[in-house]
Amino acid sequence: MLDPHGFVATCNSTHFFVVCEDALWTSTTKYILEGITRANVLALADANGIGTVQTDFALRTVYSADEAFVTGTFGGLMPVTVIDGRTIGSGARGPVTERLQGLYAALLRGET
């Protein structure tokens, strides 16, 4: 889902991320609700040496991304491999997504 200026914003009930140039990109908070899972993933990335960028970016960035995933309360952190019929990266869960899934699962185990 795009913001009023055509930049990637968020999905219906999840937040959207891409991995570009070994950094985790997500939209700014201008046109999205700030989510708890989103905030946890950004904090985990920062704490574990994964660079984060919160910026406006276009769909062309998404199409050329190395990886993509969404975050949400019910799904946690789930890889996205195809967008608009275009394969993202290798078409499978990428290493940054896999690492963040493990870190997020460990965070949840520690809080329950």
Regarding quaternary structure, what we see is: single chain
Uncertain segments: none
Distance between the termini: 33 Å
Largest sheet: 5 strands, mixed
Question: What structural class do helix, strand and pairing data support?
Answer: alpha+beta
- What is the helix tally? 3
Q: Quickly give the CATH architecture.
A: Alpha-Beta Barrel
Strand content: 25-35%
Radius of gyration: 13 Å
CATH topology category name: D-amino Acid Aminotransferase, Chain A, domain 2
Strand order of the largest sheet: 3-2-1-4-5
Shape descriptor reads globular
**Domains counted in the coordinates: how many?**
1
pLDDT averaged residue by residue: 94
Query: What's the CATH first level?
Result: Alpha Beta
The helix content is 25-40%
In CATH terms, the superfamily is D-amino Acid Aminotransferase, subunit A, domain 2
Number of strands: 7
Report on the architecture of this protein.
The protein has 112 residues and is of the alpha+beta class. It has one domain: D-amino Acid Aminotransferase, subunit A, domain 2 (D-amino Acid Aminotransferase, Chain A, domain 2, Alpha-Beta Barrel), CATH 3.20.10. Helix content is 30%, strand content 25%. A five-stranded mixed β-sheet has the order 3-2-1-4-5, covered by helices on one side. Strands 6-7 form a two-stranded antiparallel sheet. The model has no long low-confidence stretch (mean pLDDT 94).
